[in-house]
Structure prediction request, 106 residues.
Amino acid sequence: MKRLLLLLPLVAGGCSSLANAPLIGLPENAPARPETVGAYPAVHDIPPPRGGQTLSVDEQNRMEAELAQVRARQKSVAASDAAALAKGGGKAGAKAKRRPETPAAK
Prediction:
């Protein structure tokens, strides 16, 4: 008998008609449910082709060279900041806040 009483709320909790009951269901300030359910997103639609132009081989090589220069400069700044922190005990804050110079646009 006790098992039946314990299972009754679980069985009754699945009833959707009880969700609208005043003491059990939705609060008074809950927004109304929409009349129609929204459509599923179109997952199989293919996006339109891109309109932009790709980089030429020369442009791509120039960009890669610029990125390599920036990477090397940042690596050296990080190494010098780490050395200053190790040596000075945390006094490299002004140097760490400095932004590296960006290469001029050609």
